Amino acid sequence: MDRGLAFVGAGLLLLVVGFGASAFAAPGAGPATDGPQTTGTDGSQTADPAGTRTATRTPAQLSGTLIGVQGSGSYTSGGYTELAGERVLRDQQDTYFDVSLLRDGRLLAAWMDEDREECGPYDTPCARTGFVVFEQDGTVTQRYSFPVRSSTNSEVHDVEALPDGGFVLADMDRERVVIVRDGEEVWQWNASSFYDAPADPTRRDWLHINDVDRIGDDRFLVSVRNANQLLVLERQEEGGEVVEVINADDGGSDDSCTVRGRLSDTDGDGDVRCGDPEAFKEQHNPQWLGPGAVLVADSENDRVVELHERGGEWRPVWVLTGADGRSFSWPRDADRLPNGNTLVTDSRGRRVVEVTESGETVWSYSTGDGIVYEADRVPEGETVGGALYATDRPPETTATTGDGTGTTAPDGESGTATSGDERTAKPGATATPATPSETGSTTEAVTPVVVGGGEDRLPVFGEAARLLRAGLPWLPLWLRGPQVAVLSVSLMLVVAGVVDRRRQE
């Protein structure tokens, strides 16, 4: 037999058998359906050919989950929102990011449209970004937007309604936090007052401020993705003051923050503000669990982390790496639910999952080809305050009054959401978990609790698979390290066979 043909045949056979077996054995694989599937606690799946996702729900799902999908097979088009399994708002040109339920039953979403002609100072076509408010039947009742130069890395990723009727936005085009009331910008904080700024932040992906949450009177938690940092920002009459930095610069390497022309030392002091990428890297949608505790979707590290402040430093104490036997792929939201579980949005995994503290999957929901950005359990939404994990005594919550004082109540009682917020919330005052120092924590080195499994056993090929799925989001979810290894060996055999054949000619 011709040796070259044998190599080519062996390579193709390995590819077909390896990929076929992977597709067949992938979690959730089975008979083809026309719609996504919902997996319950018993592992059963319900097909939804109509695409309305009316699968039988577990008790944990009965209140519904609101989902914002950035795009279908794309990061810049085909986005939509879903509420309680029903498609609410969709436009093939639009993308959606943060979504929330307002007290009056309307929906609020951060939004971007990449194909607009109203471009202000920019050439057409440009993009417009901002937020949209709409009824649950999809009727738009309010919209606020402004033109941006690019349809990527310039979007408003997060918007939150304020008690006074205004809205606070995270604007990553001009890298600022801004409050809009009655269609007018009434306050802003510019990140250039804290970070080394380029001449024009709209011309490059500088800081990528992707989240802002109101965590108290005139206090906001701000996510600065490209700096691997979270800021506690205190609003002042003019601008604001950064009163705390979570994952502050420890003097180590700044390489993770200066890649691809992001942060740079424009003031010439030899340093930029860059957090430790081992704590979290290029994060999204943090949740303030209370003084000294925060939950973070650690996106670029493909995990979810809960950090506690210990001796003035923030350290991961609980790490979730995957669910349902599958590792996470770029998770971009994590919420600690009132029931004590954690809701995770696995963006490139194209699913939303709820897990327990031990990493057990309560339910998993597939978005099909939808690249999901964020999810909220309604009616509560993302609360301010929540149960703590990895503490040496059961978590407690403090019902905080307006002056910052309060009484401690067992976790699970009323008062788990901010009263007065426009998001639907339980009656009661702000719930603030006991600080980690109150639970017996020390400044000693901390070994985090790691749960969830799903680790890729071939790290080099696993990283290659992650990069492939990042650039080609339509690739199958089962394409991971082992499959890339099989692909590599198959290609080498085919190339070797072709070369051998040409030598014989």
Describe this entry's structure for a reader.
- The chain is mostly beta strands and 505 residues long.
- The protein has a single domain (37-451), classed as Neuraminidase.
- It has four helices and 32 strands.
- It has helices spanning 3-25, 255-258, 459-471, 481-504, and strands spanning 37-39, 45-47, 65-72, 80-83, 86-90, 94-101, 107-116, 126-134, 140-148, 156-161, 167-171, 176-181, 184-190, 209-216, 219-224, 229-235, 240-246, 284-290, 293-298, 303-310, 313-320, 322-323, 326-327, 331-336, 342-346, 351-355, 361-366, 370-377, 396-400, 406-410, 430-433, 449-451.
- Strands 2-1-27-26-25-24 form a six-stranded antiparallel β-sheet, with no helix packed on it.
- The chain is globular, with a radius of gyration of 24 Å.
Task: Draw up the topology in text.
Layout: H1 3-25, E1 37-39, E2 45-47, E3 65-72, E4 80-83, E5 86-90, E6 94-101, E7 107-116, E8 126-134, E9 140-148, E10 156-161, E11 167-171, E12 176-181, E13 184-190, E14 209-216, E15 219-224, E16 229-235, E17 240-246, H2 255-258, E18 284-290, E19 293-298, E20 303-310, E21 313-320, E22 322-323, E23 326-327, E24 331-336, E25 342-346, E26 351-355, E27 361-366, E28 370-377, E29 396-400, E30 406-410, E31 430-433, E32 449-451, H3 459-471, H4 481-504
Parallel strand pairs: 21-32
Antiparallel strand pairs: 1-2, 1-27, 3-4, 3-28, 4-5, 6-7, 7-8, 8-9, 10-11, 11-12, 12-13, 14-15, 15-16, 16-17, 18-19, 19-20, 20-21, 22-23, 24-25, 25-26, 26-27, 29-30, 29-31
Helix pairs in contact: 1-4, 3-4
